Amino acid sequence: MSAALVLSRARRSVLVVDAGAPRNGPAAHMHGYLSRDGMAPAELLKVGRAEVRHYGGDILDATVDGLTEDRTGFEVTLTGGLRRTARRVLVTTGLRDELPDITGLRQRWARDVLHCPYCHGHEVRDRQLGVLGGSPGAVRYAQIVRQWTHDLVYFTPPGTLTAAERTQLTARAIGVVEGAVEQLLVNDDRLRGVRLAGGRVVPRDALFVPPTFVPNNHLLTGLGCAVDDDGWVTTDPTGRTSVPGVWAAGNVVDPRAQVITAAGAASAAAIALNADLVGEDVRSAVDAYQHTS
Length: 293
Description:
FAD/NAD(P)-binding domain
């Protein structure tokens, strides 16, 4: 929507194809977006759609099944066989969060099972919090969550902590519980505790879980866009991919991007995309002028 706003104001013909399944859909509120802090994600989309349409942009509720290059640019195939063509494409398909297979965890996602302390930490401040550890970087992640509470427990499989990590956790009064997490306990639609294998229950009000980020980048890789060693599509600072005419922005190329970051990246991509189109328009005009002179 951010890119569409910039491009439609630049008097470009713009089509937004929205599959209607944003990553933050389960969240009740969005935070850290200046002037929109606390707004529901759906409300931001509603306002954004109205702004884009005000400047003549089109929005289509559909899913893109295919993206291919053609003689004039690109052909977009939508679910049901509908096709659209475009001179340039910006892909903002985001990512999906792969979560640990723990009973009750996914059902509480974005409610009291959380992944971003900067998005949700303030709302659960000073409560009994937990961090599900054991993955690379999880100890550092727990140290960040510690900023929002004095009552934090780090859950981790036995034998995963180094001596230095254990010292760091102890030094900041972060409790360490070693064992396999088996289930989340919920009562009255609220997280109440974490059950370990063997039956021990540790009371917690919210649990932070560092998920595995998987980019929804099949449209980009299908076009042949270059990826890094971890499988993420690479772009220049404006979001331009290795395939001419294709840009990408947001979580599909940046797993750390929050809503405000993704919107800013899309705005920058739109400006670069329009400049690229202007360059093509100039070349076409010169060719036509020289042909008729």
